[in-house]
Write a structure and sequence with these properties.
Layout (H helix, E strand, L loop, with lengths): L14 H27 L4 E2 L2 H8 L3 H9 L5 E3 L2 E3 L1 H25 L3 H12 L3 H12 L9 H11 L5 H10 L8 H12 L15 H22 L21 H15 L1
Helix pairs in contact: 1-3, 2-3, 10-11
Length: 267
């Protein structure tokens, strides 16, 4: 079964993404999404090993490091790379799974035999059973509930602060419904009870794509106005050199004047 996650169609207009595009270009943008894919494949975190990541993604180590550290797109905990947006999407997926299971129970009135019969018919010769077995094997389906000792041991191993007894009691009361990966669920539980203020991002104003488009068009208009004024008749007003077609002059006076004009237009 193919896995997928949502990709916001306007992600490139995010302020942090724009900052990354200015310095790392489309390569940085591609590396960012490949790292996000790897986080989804590994239940929300991957080891902070830039050399290994660079080898796997066929790029240079310093480029991986820049994408992970320079733009506040990811954060680190205990030597692992994580993402607040990936954390949120994994939790939303888990909550949707719980709601879907609850709706199924309401539909069939808790009649497990009726539910099983209908699933077998829809599966057509056991295809659904095979798929569920594959998901469980690959970690894509609901996992077997852990023991309280396992949760306690995992808390110590990961240096988490959340109360494992409280987490285990709460999930047990719900029958561990919708818990695909209990370790990821416990990490989210820990972040909810003990948020890391150093990784909390400030609330930024929303960027309107229409405003960005207008700024770009205004910049083009300013550049064209400068060209029309100082290349009238195809001759540079500074050095009097004729240019071919719509080409601009390469003299220092024209170039310096153009740069000053464009800087002034931004203020």
């Amino acid at each position: 079964m193919k896995e997928y996650f949502s990709h916001d169609h306007h992600a490139r207009t995010d302020e942090k993404i724009i900052k990354m595009l200015k310095t790392s270009g489309v390569e940085g943008y591609g590396l960012y999404w490949m790292i996000v894919e790897m986080l989804h494949e590994n239940q929300g975190s991957i080891p902070k090993d830039y050399e290994l990541l660079a080898y796997e993604l066929r790029t240079q180590c310093e480029r991986i490091k820049a994408v992970c550290e320079d733009y506040d797109l990811f954060y680190e905990r205990d030597g692992r790379i994580l993402s607040l947006s990936v954390d949120r999407r994994l939790q939303e997926r888990a909550e949707k799974s719980v709601k879907a299971k609850s709706s199924a129970m309401k539909r069939w009135g808790g009649n497990a035999n009726a539910m099983r019969t209908q699933c077998d018919l829809d599966a057509k010769a056991g295809v659904l059973k095979e798929r569920k077995g594959k998901e469980r094997k690959e970690g894509g389906g609901e996992a077997d509930p852990p023991t309280l000792s396992q949760v306690r041991d995992y808390r110590e191993a990961e240096h988490l602060k959340a109360d494992p007894d409280k987490f285990h009691a709460w999930q047990s009361s719900k029958g561990w419904a919708g818990v695909i990966d209990w370790k990821a669920a416990f990490r989210y539980w820990d972040r909810t009870e003990y948020p890391d203020k150093s990784t909390q991002l400030p609330v930024l104003p929303k960027i309107n794509p229409a405003d960005i488009h207008k700024e770009n068009m205004d910049s083009i208009d300013h550049a064209n106005a400068w060209h029309d004024k100082h290349m009238a008749g195809g001759k540079c007003s500074f050095c009097k050199t004729k240019a071919v077609g719509l080409a601009t002059c390469k003299c220092k006076a024209y170039t310096d004047g153009f740069n000053k004009h464009m800087e002034k237009s931004k203020t």
